[in-house]
Design a protein that fits this description.
This protein has seven helices and six strands, in the order βααβαβαβααββα. By secondary structure, the chain is α/β, with parallel strands linked by helices. It has one domain: Decaprenyl diphosphate synthase-like (Undecaprenyl pyrophosphate synthetase, 3-Layer(aba) Sandwich). It has a six-stranded parallel sheet with strand order 3-4-2-1-5-6, with helices on both faces. α1 crosses α2 and α3 packs parallel to α4. The protein binds farnesyl diphosphate (FPP).
C-alpha cells in the first residue's frame, strides 16, 4: 500500500512563522474548483475530485502539524445531489477510497474521524466506511477530521427550529426561554466549536449553504487556487493571515 502522507511540517522552514498560541481551534474548508481544475487539463470532472482527495490529505497533515483541533471539510452538500449521477456516484466513493488508503495512518496520528450531515440518502458503502473510521478513531484525542457530507445549513437550521418548537409545544420550555446555546445544541454541529476560520478555494466568494449559523463570527479567507492544487503552504498562509486579524465580536477593540 502506498503511503501518501507527507512528513509533518513541524520544525520545517514552513511552519515557524505561525504563532503557536493563536492557532484557530476549528478550521472549515469549502473545497471548490475540482471541476475547473480538471477541465483546464482536459480531464473528466471526477479526475478533479480524485485530485481533490489528495489535497484533503495534505491539508489534514498541515492542520495537525500546527495544532488545529478540528478541521471540517465540505465534501458534499444537500444540493450536490442535483449533479449528474455518475459524478454523485464517484463523490460517494471518495470517503471509502480515502479511508482505505489513509485510515491506518490517521489512527496512528491520533486523528478522530467524524461526519456531519444527514445519513439518509447516503449509500451504505459510504456510511460503512465512515462508521468504521469513526469507530476505529473514537478513542483518539488529536485532530478531529470532520467530513461535512450530505450537509446543508438551511435544512439544519430548519430541523433545529422544529426540534425546539416541538419542545415548546410539549411544554418542556417556554419560547422566551430559548437561548442561543440551546438552539445550537439542536444543530448537526452540536458539541463542536464554531469555525474560527473558513477557507474557500477557487476564487468564489460565497458560503453555499455552509455553516450559516456557526459562521456568525468566523474569519473568512479566500484563495484563487483550485482545490486540487491547494497545498500546505497555502493553508499556512491562511493561518498567518488569520493571526493578523482582530476578532472583535461586535465590541470595540
Ligand atoms: C466542489 O468543486 C467540490 C465538491 C462538490 C466535492 C468536494 C470533494 C472533494 C474535494 C473530495 C473529498 C474527499 C474526501 C476524502 C471525502 P466543483 O466540483 O464544484 O468544482 P467546479 O466549481 O470547478 O466545477
Amino acid at each position: 500500500m502506498v503511503r501518501l502522507w507527507k512528513k509533518s511540517k513541524i520544525g520545517s522552514d514552513k511552519a515557524p512563522a505561525i504563532e503557536q498560541e493563536n492557532v484557530p481551534e476549528h478550521v472549515a474548508v469549502i473545497m471548490d474548483g475540482n471541476g475547473r481544475w480538471a477541465k483546464q487539463r482536459g480531464l473528466p470532472r471526477i479526475a478533479g475530485h480524485h485530485a481533490g482527495m489528495k489535497a484533503v490529505k495534505r491539508v489534514t497533515i498541515a492542520a495537525d502539524s500546527i495544532g488545529v483541533k478540528a478541521l471540517t471539510m465540505y465534501a458534499f452538500s444537500t444540493e450536490n445531489w442535483n449533479r449528474p449521477q455518475e459524478e454523485v456516484d464517484y463523490l460517494m466513493k471518495l470517503p471509502s477510497e480515502f479511508l482505505a488508503i489513509e485510515l491506518q495512518e490517521l489512527i496512528e496520528k491520533n486523528v478522530q474521524v467524524r461526519m456531519t450531515g444527514w445519513r439518509e440518502g447516503l449509500p451504505g458503502h459510504t456510511l460503512a466506511a465512515l462508521d468504521q473510521a469513526e469507530a476505529d478513531t473514537r478513542h483518539n484525542t488529536g485532530l478531529i477530521l470532520n467530513f461535512a457530507l450530505n450537509y446543508g445549513s438551511r435544512r439544519e437550521i430548519l430541523e433545529a427550529v422544529k426540534a425546539v418548537a416541538r419542545e415548546a409545544a410539549e411544554g418542556q420550555l417556554s419560547p422566551d426561554s430559548i437561548t442561543e446555546s440551546h438552539f445550537a445544541g439542536k444543530l448537526l454541529t452540536a458539541g463542536m466549536p464554531d469555525p474560527d476560520l473558513l477557507i474557500r478555494t477557487s476564487g468564489e466568494l460565497r458560503l453555499s449553504n455552509f455553516m450559516l449559523w456557526q459562521s456568525a463570527y468566523t474569519e473568512f479567507w479566500f484563495s484563487n487556487r483550485y482545490w486540487p492544487e491547494f497545498g500546505d503552504e497555502d493553508f499556512f498562509e491562511a493561518i498567518r493571515e488569520y493571526q493578523h486579524r482582530t476578532r472583535r465580536y461586535g465590541r470595540l477593540k
